[in-house]
Amino acid sequence: FLVVWMVLCTECTEAVANNRESESCSCSCLNDQLMELLQGYHNDTVSILNDYLKCRDLHEEELLRRKRIGENLKYPAYSCHEVADRKPLAQSGYYWLQTCRLSTPVKVYCDLEKSLDDTRGWMRVTVLDMRDSQQQCPDGLKYYSSPKRACGRSVDGPACNSVTFTTYGLQYQKVCGRLLGYQVGHPDAFHRSPSRNSIEESYVDGVSITHGKNPRKHIWTYAIGLTEINLGHLQCNCPCNSPNPGPSPPAFVGSDYHCESGLYS
Known about the structure:
disordered N terminus, alpha+beta, 265 residues, three-stranded mixed beta sheet, three-stranded antiparallel beta sheet
């Protein structure tokens, strides 16, 4: 705006000095046209200037967000992966996340150390360490005090108990976990699977990890077989036992499982 204004005033001054007022080049003759022209330049320039200031403010805000991402409610990250990507030196800990399905940010634990597949930015969905005397079993699972503090199904015999943990609507591609279990009674691996082929049924003696609903989709199964020794209970052995394999898992499990043999006594 200032440059345009100075150029027009210079042309007007030169016209007056050269006695070209009769040619509509004087300031007085050009007044209406000049003001109309300047008003147009002014409006356009002010609009551009305002857009620039907004753009600069947004840029500075984005730079600040990248620097402080996940550290507070004002600058939540979209995922733990974004925290790891934006802040390569960030340490594992609690960060604020907000996805498109969340109206307000939530605080979650982000594991920012490199995993076995050399990736960073894992979000902890849940942790249940019953070695901690302050930990309680979630609703839906039964507390066992012997032989170790643990959580399990609430009834003996063929049955299932489920617990749902939220991912806050976050899209994910991989699931990683660790499970520590203790044998109680007579583990049967996939003994019941020939007659129970639905993911909603008790197809395994162990733990099944699924996602979604209606229907649920299988991620991983941890099965516990009775023994590696042939004692007349072949149907309770793991499928990989040799030379006495037990039943194979249902088709929806495929090869996404691990089976360990217990101790028969």
